[in-house]
Amino acid sequence: MALTMGLVLCCAAILIAEEKKDEKKKEPPKVLMTSPLGVEVGSNGTVKIRGLKLENATAVRFVDAKAPVEVKIKSKGKSEAPKPLEAAKAGDTQVEIELKLPAEIPAGPLLFVVVTPDGESQRHSIQVMEKGSTVAEKEPNGSFRKPQDVDLGKVIEGQIGEPMDVDVFRFTGKGGQMIVAEVRAARLGSALDSTLNLYDENGRILANSDDEDGGVDSILRVRLPADGVYLLSLIDANDRGGVAHPYQLSIRAEE
């Protein structure tokens, strides 16, 4: 009898151990991107954090910040990836936070983690920008007839909001001036595969840029042929767009 009971207990222990082995370990949340990709130092605003398994977020914690950062979760939940992108690329959950950055935070990447009952995400960064250095993209700006006017030296915080979307920006330049237009998107987690095209005010194309420096972010360098008005368009190379396609676009003059 004792031998039989011992065998039963032993078999039960083996079965329990095997069941535990079969149990999948819960994966921690993963952050893929923020929208916007950057915020100005000393500013208050809303930031959306996209990724995987973020729907049960309990906190967003900034790591090694030089001054206290105020964060309040406004909403959280499912947010499907824009088709045909997969969740692993564009995320399927989102946390929206109210963020207040003190003036003491220096410009540069600011690391944070999202905390959930299943653990913390890996560290991800949002770009802290100098005060007054950014301008928000404003719709409608999808044609040469309705471009958005911008000043050289500014960084545009924008988004290709839907498939086939085109964002057009207008600036004034001088003959012989070296202009650099640079997209920061994919390197910061965005699903955007950018393409830039530069035109003169008559719509004649002067330069274009698709993939540069081994990545899919665009960098366009061109010396302007004459004083005048110029138009710069930004699109997704695959005609995709949506909540997973934020970007930063800088248009600057260089020596």
Whole-number average pLDDT? 92
Overall 3D form: globular
The total count of strands amounts to 19
Portion in strands: over 45%
Total of DSSP H or I helical runs spanning 4+ residues: 2
Structural class: mainly beta
The helicity comes to: under 10%
**Largest sheet: number of strands, sense, barrel closure:** 5 strands, mixed
Order of helices and strands: HEEEEEHEEEEEEEEEEEEEE
Rg from C-alpha positions?
A: 24 Å
- The termini sit apart by 93 Å
Low-confidence stretches: none
Offer a few descriptive terms.
10% helix, 5-stranded mixed sheet, 255 residues
Topology readout:
Layout: H1 2-22, E1 30-35, E2 38-40, E3 44-52, E4 59-62, E5 70-78, H2 87-90, E6 93-100, E7 108-116, E8 119-120, E9 124-129, E10 134-136, E11 148-149, E12 155-159, E13 167-173, E14 178-184, E15 194-200, E16 205-209, E17 219-223, E18 228-236, E19 246-254
